[in-house]
Amino acid sequence: MVYSILLLLHSWLRWLILIGLIATVYRSYFAWKKGLDFSPADERLRFITVLLAHVQLIIGLVLYWVSPLMQYFLSHFKEAVHQREIRFFGMEHNFTMLFAIVLLTIIGARAKRLSDSKSKHKTLAIGFIIVLLLIFIAIPWPFSPLVARPWLRF
After folding, report:
1. Mind listing the pLDDT tens digit for each residue in 37-48?
2. Alpha carbons 132 and 17: distance in angstroms, whole number
3. First-to-final CA distance of the chain
């Protein structure tokens, strides 16, 4: 029961993170180009996006250790690394997402510490685009040649 709830939450939370990243990149890019001040709304959007990513990471780590797929991956490692779907979820997805969230945290903290608005917007725009690309690569999209999952789980 708890596993199913976490899986559902994990699946839906991905969309909130993507929306937060896209919104932050959009706002930061245009504010950077127009020379706008870094507003409290920009800071809230940055904070909420990073916070959602951390919640997603915690849920993902819990699912990683209790998932039957991961139990198989860990107990049959030599065979599992040769199976595309199991290897994707056992290694590729997890390490790429972990790296993306660490990078997101570093970029968000760096932007927060910068003194001028232009530098904050530029750091968030460029950095979050890189994070967004990493996350897009690691999501098991329905059309992915690596491994496919439905858009939403019910």
Report:
1. 999 999 999 999
2. 9
3. 13
